[in-house]
Amino acid sequence: MVGTNWGAKQYRRAREIAWTGAATVAATCATIGLFAALFPQMWLGLFSNDEEVIRVGTWYLQIVGPIYGFYGLGLALHSAMQGFEASC
Q: CA of 77: how far to CAs of 54, 58, 65, 88, in Å?
């Protein structure tokens, strides 16, 4: 949608689409990351019952989980930029 609107010289609309999509992806990834950080045993229990794995995995998810929203934001903006470049 970004590329189509940019190619049609609808620059404001293309930017709105890019930022709306980026905000949606960021919010979704942030929700997943926070859920994983708050309840790591639910996720880690699918892969192992070893207490050391759960301990290290919990530590990892509590550090990295809250950052997932920023990862999603970057990923979505990168995808929007690919749509922009395809229209040029």
A: 33, 29, 20, 17
Query: What is the pTM assigned to this prediction?
Result: 0.82
How are the residues of the chain apportioned to helix, strand and coil, as percentages rounded to the nearest 5? Answer: 85, 0, 15
Per-position pLDDT tens, the chain of length 88: 998 999 999 999 999 999 999 999 999 999 999 999 999 999 999 999 999 999 999 999 999 999 999 999 999 999 999 888 876 6
Query: 50-58, long-range: CB within 8 Å, 24+ apart, which pairs?
Result: none
Beta carbons within 8 Å of 41's beta carbon, 6+ residues apart? 54, 58
